[in-house]
Specification:
Blueprint lengths: L2 H29 L6 H28 L7
């Protein structure tokens, strides 16, 4: 696997994880009365979905491209 692709996948995975956690935190704040965060929650939700789908797609492509190892 290409080293730069591996680094990109690690960074993208970390960003996806942070976005998912921020969605949880903003959702909890909205439930507890911070209605001003609704638009931010919606927009970051779109970004979370886009990053997560990109990460999953690229990760699956990398996994599928690894050749099968033969038994010794």
């Amino acid at each position: 696997m290409n080293g730069s692709l591996k680094l990109f996948l690690i960074v993208l995975g970390a960003v996806s994880g942070m976005l998912i956690i921020s969605q949880l935190v903003m959702g909890l704040l909205i439930v507890n009365g911070q209605a001003s965060l609704i638009k931010a929650h919606q927009h970051s939700g779109y970004l979370t979905v886009a990053c997560s789908i990109l990460y999953l797609g690229l990760s699956l492509m990398v996994i599928a491209s690894v050749p099968a190892q033969k038994d010794r």
